Known about the structure:
The protein is of the alpha/beta class. It has helices at residues 29-42, 64-73, 76-95, 111-118, 145-153, 155-164, 170-176, 188-200, 204-216, 222-237, 240-251; strands at residues 3-8, 11-16, 48-53, 57-59, 100-104, 107-109, 121-125, 129-131, 168-169, 181-183. The protein is built from eleven helices and ten strands. Helix 3 runs parallel beside helix 4, helix 4 (111-118) crosses helix 5 (145-153) and helix 9 (204-216) packs antiparallel against helix 10. The protein folds into two domains: 3-200, Alpha-Beta Complex (2-enoyl-CoA Hydratase, Chain A, domain 1); 204-251, Lyase 2-enoyl-coa Hydratase, Chain  A, domain 2 (Orthogonal Bundle), CATH 1.10.12.
Amino acid sequence: MSFIESAAGEITTIRLNRPEKLNAFAGTMREELIAALRAAESDARCRVVVITGAGRGFCAGGDVEYMSGLQKNGDVSAFRKLLDAGREIVTTIAAMPKPVIAAVNGVAAGAGCNLALACDYRIASEAAKFSESFVKIGMHPDWGGTWLLPRLVGRSRAMELLMTGRMIDAAEALAIGLVDRVVAADELEAATMQLANTFASAPPIPLAGIKRALIASESNDLGAQVDLETANQLQAFASSDAAEGMAAFFEKRAPTFRGE
């Protein structure tokens, strides 16, 4: 079983489950991850998705032994399928209206590093390590790494990490903005669930709008961005959750948002 997927109320956890290989992608794991993400997106109960790894690794990237076999056989078609699946994973995460949290419990290398970067928020264990390791095996970054990384750490620092493939620890990842928070290894699950529950208690309609707006802000000019904010705000204004939020404000109580 390549994945453990659990839905606890409003939070769906997708756990890569190949711990003996640090959860490196092999076989049908990419397709299984796509299916798990789509299932979470279509689940009306789910408001937040958490991606993490089983054992001591988050994800060590692709299975180099398998890719070596493809390269030796000149099987470009099979290799292209791996690339297409990676593209679908990161674009599915970006398009999903629900926040996706990466709980990075250990090594995140190559595609595994970029899987973490594709998520909306990254919380890492002190034991986590990150590497854009593609050049170490003569390969070019994929899974959106050349788009995602410079937006988090800046172009020149991204160039250094991508061109050297060096491993960085959680403290450096936090210092350069690659991750958002670092906690003790034994606190990772609790800290992740606390954050996920906070997201889950918020109104889903404006949360989806915020995610869309932040992604669009990478290419929009100010006028286009304000237009998008206006459209999102009008959608939120017409919702039952807005009425509930304002009523709760005046009644001095916690609101109950239903995504309606």
